[in-house]
Amino acid sequence: MSERGALRVRLDRLVREIAKFGVVGGLGLLVNMAVFNLVRHTTEIPVVRASLIATVIAIAFNYVGFRYFTYRDRDKSGRTRELSLFLAFSVVGMVIENGVLFAATYGFGWDSPLQSNFFKFFGIGVATLFRFWSYRTWVFRTLPGAEAAPAAAESFLEQRRHHDEPAAEPVGPRR
Q1: What is the pTM (predicted TM-score) of this model?
Q2: How does residue 122 score in pLDDT terms, banded at 50, 70 and 90?
Q3: 23-56: per-residue pLDDT in tens?
Q4: Residue 110 DSSP symbol
Q5: Which residues, in sequence order, are CB contacts of 41 under 8 Å at separation 6+?
Q6: How distant, in Å, are the alpha carbons of 149, 154, 156, 163 from that of 160?
Q7: Which of 56, 76, 125, 127 could form a disulfide with 97 if both were Cys (CB 3.0 to 4.6 A apart)?
Q8: How far apart are CA 39 and CA 49, in angstroms?
Q9: What CA–CA distance (Å, rounded) separates 71 from 69?
């Protein structure tokens, strides 16, 4: 396979992965925001604590979605390691997400429901960039050789195509 073809295959895989990550993440966002607003408006729990509760519930939801949908084809041999890393990186994401909300609420005094929802959403966006990178790099790792297999298959097919082509006849004046 040509280098350009290999790049195209890798890019297609990345786009599919981002789309699947986005589906799970979008549903997780809905869970996160719904729980946040439910806790915020039905209890006396402070805004950042309500956000922490919502984030923990969304993390559990997202793990199931990532493991069984987005990254179902990835290595499943070390579930304890995978879950430990997922939780560790999720906690870092939770700190990023809720740090933004904390700074807005307690640093700037922006505590109206609209402001809280905006900064919660913004914090989720910033944390999502970190989560995508960390989950795909460290948690849901590609099986060894999984990326090489399609490239090897396409290279083999390309060689067969060239081998099976009839030899060209020499071009020259006819006598």
Answers
A1: 0.74
A2: very high
A3: 999 999 999 999 999 999 999 999 999 999 999 9
A4: -
A5: 113
A6: 17, 10, 6, 5
A7: 127
A8: 9
A9: 6
